[in-house]
Amino acid sequence: MSKIKVLYIIDQITDITAGTERQLSLLVKNLDRERFEPHLLALRPSEWLESDHFPCPAHCLDMGSVLSVSGLTKLTELKYFIADNNFHIVQTYFPDSNVVGVLAAKRAGCRIIFSTRRNTGFFYNSRLLIATKFANRHVSRFLANSELVVKAISEKEGIDQEQFSVIHNGLEAERFRIAPEDIRSARVFIGASEDDTIVGIVANLRPVKDHETFIRAAAKICQSRNDIKFVVIGGGDDNYQAQLKRMARGLSIGSNIKFLGSVENPSAFIKNFDVGVLTSKAEGLSNTLMEYGALGIPSVATDVGGNPEVVQDGKTGLLVPVENPGKVAEAVNQLLRDKDRLKEMGSEASKAVWSKFNLTLMVKLHQALYTRMYDEVTSERKLTETK
């Protein structure tokens, strides 16, 4: 049996610590190479991509603006790349690829086109939404990582929910096997004593993650407690980080909060958290919340996107309204006041996450979908040829 050739198209990859990029990397790394031949194509270059770290052959289209004359030229170039390499499946990630990748695959004659949706579409402007809806007509099936993403996107893009397959994110077990000395070293790096309580957030430094609410909540908590260290893990815009640090100093908690920047595997730090927080204004299915749960850390998270699919309110953590520092502070204090309940919630969070969000299941579901669609297309082609 010949291998099924799969081309993954993404706007850009700057590293694989971010949610979507990491999930794609894990999927590609763990695909059965006896049955599948994966390739990656990024629309735009990056230093990380050039370093040749991705677990399959990687290509770059070097595309500029999508809606330009040069963009049309690059779309044609991509069409020929797909056709010349005889890819059986094309799967797209992120807004530009969900337009350019889909249209190029269709023009190349590719019969199986998957288009992924991993958030609620908060970023859409009118032009992008029109272009996306046009491209959607050529999609074989849409893939989402949560039920709430399906609901939001189906309403926004006018897609029948029956056209979606939901495949949750997957966690790799080895990422969470942490040596005790690494946990201790992380605590020392944070600057926390054994008696200190640690409340942290793991999220890339982007406005949609709303670190401002986390910092304002921290300031409210510090009004009644002085034994808590607050930790921010996540890379991103240096100017935004400087703005957040100024805010913390302005609220007189500059000495209580530590910004660690980007950490490739933050598990040793998360394991030191008493409570993990996520204050996003929008989410698909949060890897951060899954990592909190996998490590037995209860969460306080905003009630958006797929967060309720990870955090069972009152059982594995607490859900709070968006942009409400008071409610975040109240929820954190509520958890910290009852150590027995905090421990019980952490245990329940670990059980829930590992039963639902594991890497083996995520890869298995993708492979089953690829095989089923490929077999259907192959059967249709054989029938056509015999007529």
Q: What this model shows, in words?
A:
The structure is a single chain. The protein is of the alpha/beta class and 387 residues long. It has two domains: 4-170 and 358-386, Glycogen Phosphorylase B (Rossmann fold, 3-Layer(aba) Sandwich); 174-356, Rossmann fold, CATH 3.40.50. 46% of the residues lie in helices and 17% in strands. The protein has 15 helices and 13 strands. The longest helix has 28 residues, at 359-386. The chain starts with a strand and ends with a helix.
CATH architecture of the largest domain: 3-Layer(aba) Sandwich
Apparent shape: elongated
Order of helices and strands: EHEHEHEHEHEHEHEHEHEHEHEHEHHH
| Strand order in the largest sheet | 3-2-1-4-5-6-7
Number of strands: 13
Beta-sheet strand percentage?
A: 15-25%
Mean pLDDT across the residues is 93
Number of alpha- plus pi-helical segments:
15
Q: Any idea of the CATH class of the largest domain?
A: Alpha Beta
> What is the structural class?
alpha/beta
Our measurement of the CA-to-CA distance between the termini, rounded to an integer number of angstroms, reads 24 Å
Q: Supply Rg.
A: 22 Å
Poorly predicted regions? none
The CATH topology of the largest domain turns out to be Rossmann fold
**Regarding quaternary structure, how should these chains be classified?**
single chain
Task: Identify the CATH homologous superfamily of the largest domain.
Answer: Glycogen Phosphorylase B
- Give the proportion of residues in helices: 40-55%
